[in-house]
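Dear colleagues,

As part of the handover before I leave the project, I'm documenting each prediction I ran so the next person doesn't have to rerun anything. This entry is a single chain, and its sequence is reproduced below.
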Amino acid sequence: MTRSNSLPQNSRFKAAFLPALAVTILAAWGGPAPARAAGPPQGELQNCIALAETAPDAALERARAWEGRDGGDRARLCQAMALFHKGDFAEAGKRLEALAPVLGQGDGRATASLLGQAGWAWLRAGDAGRAEAIYTQALEHTPGDVDLLIDRAFARAEAERFWDALTDLDDAIGRDAGRADAYLYRAAAHKALSNLPMALDDVNRALELRPGDGEALVLRGAIKAAAGKPDAAKADWDLVVSREPDSSAARTARTNLMRLNTAEK
């Protein structure tokens, strides 16, 4: 099944998780770094991960040198994040999985954060099954974590298990009714299952929480088109193109408009 039938991949929601990873690990350690990671101060990890976001090759080289200076597991964590930002998602996933129990040190939140990032790496690598398994492990450490429930729903939808995705999204929304991304993803899952009225209700709720969101408008247009309302679909897609013409949502909207116009001829 193509991505158009699975949950929307909204990079804005996901990107917010990456900078928080170093903060979570440092907070879990609290105080001086452990002996195995002696040498550079704790700030080195945060600086290295920040570099990995903008210059992953430089960060990878820096982290390798740091490991040679007794940077230990923190240096290896930065290497994993640099590999992630370089696009080597499978290798990053493997390394993050291995580091989770070591860096987590029995702290459920820190371990779950690392496992959550490993799951996202495996999703980016195209292995939804492995990602789901890792998210399930993470949820064992932090049961009911809304972010992890949403991420596992994403993985389940990528594997075309939309009913299971809905179970996680229902749980997430029940715990935090203010999450626009959860409503957006649940709308996409309902659409994939041809539950169009429920899909429309959810995408409208997402737009109430995040007015004008381009991805939500694109999805709402797709739901309206599937319901046999092409003019209403075009209105949503035209709105995206006019408001944010250079965005990925606008590119999708243009493609949808072209296909709809071709089908009508």
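DSSP finds 14 helices and no strands in the chain. Residues 56-86 form the longest helix (31 residues).

All the best with the project,
I.
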